[in-house]
Amino acid sequence: MVILLKKNPEQKQLDNLIHWLKGLGIETKFTVGHHSTILGLLGDTSIVDIDLVRALDIVENVMRIQEPYKNANRKFHPDDTVIDVCGRKIGGGNFQIIAGPCSVESEDQIISVAKSVKAAGAGLLRGGAFKPRTSPYAFQGLRGTGIELLLEAKAETGLPIVTEIMDASHLPLFEQVDIIQVGARNMQNFELLKELGKTNKPILLKRGLASTLEELLMSAEYIMAGGNKNVILCERGIRTFETYTRNTLDLSAIPLLKELTHLPVIVDPSHATGLSRLVKPLSMAAAVAGADGLIIEVHNDPTKALCDGPQSLTPAQFEDVACDIGKALDVIGKKIG
Length: 337
Ligand code: PEP
Ligand code: MN
Description:
By secondary structure, this protein is an alpha/beta fold. The chain has two domains: 2-63, Alpha-Beta Plaits; 83-336, TIM Barrel (Alpha-Beta Barrel), CATH 3.20.20.70. 32% of the residues lie in helices and 18% in strands. It has helices at residues 11-23, 50-54, 107-120, 144-157, 190-197, 213-225, 253-260, 269-273, 279-288, 315-331; strands at residues 2-5, 27-32, 37-42, 59-63, 83-85, 88-90, 96-100, 124-126, 161-165, 179-182, 203-206, 231-235, 265-267, 293-297. An eight-stranded parallel beta barrel has the order 7-8-9-10-11-12-13-14, surrounded by five helices. Strands 2-3-1-4 form a four-stranded antiparallel beta sheet. α3 crosses α4, α3 packs parallel to α10 and α9 (279-288) runs parallel beside α10 (315-331). The longest helix is centred in the C-terminal third of the chain and has 17 residues, at 315-331. It starts with a strand and ends in a 6-residue tail after the last helix. It binds phosphoenolpyruvate and manganese (II) ion. Phosphoenolpyruvate is lined by residues 102, 128, 132, 183-185, 206, 236, 268, 271.
């Protein structure tokens, strides 16, 4: 981090700043020029509150040279992290498809969808039990019962299960869940992230509706700082001015995140577009752009789905999409599973 000081900074304020930084274990190095004085900071500057420094009277500007995230940073961990979920590897060249309904609705529904997505090549089953809905009058999910039904589907098919948590107090219900999802709306629920940091469960962290990649990485850092290094990032589209799609898929996030972090990066083309017919082209694009996997909504009868029907594929459509994802992966020498 570099601090550009204003001309003729007041000595007492400068001494206070240096003293405060020293207390944080940070050494300072002065470079005095004709027009300005620069203070170089040496040490772990991730703990320095940049806005606090910028607000000081004697400070003209502050620039970060190092990213504020350490655990998630590829600079300190050059090798790809590979997350192994019951033998299904995600990351480091391993590509997985997570598929299933937006919400678990009944025993028949989740078991039939689980069987069909498994047959088409999905390695993991998704299904929401606790649903974050915009309207309090919309279906809120089967909650604990939904998780029990997912476990039944797992027992029936062998597919590990992925489901969303909305409140840390529900954690005991997630004991047998294989991957805990943190949804877009909770990406910056820092108390929840801290609690998940104390577990050793793989966490699927979705990008917030209007979050930058740095904010996503800082949220991953919250989980990792607590000791849980099993984080999978998910690009699921962000809010833009475009209204034809539910969100706008930020494809550039994939190669950029792969540069910045060693964590696996997967893509959710269903929530990114809101339209089932766009799931295939965007899945193929994401696969070729270097994603480590996809999470796709599949429903036995999308027209009757209690949540997100318009973006859900039928099992037959999913089979077709999975087949073309396989062809796209051929281009870059990867395969599903
Ligand atoms: C979901 O996966 O069902 C979901 C609610 O996703 P997001 O948090 O990305 O909106
Ligand atoms: Mn959904």
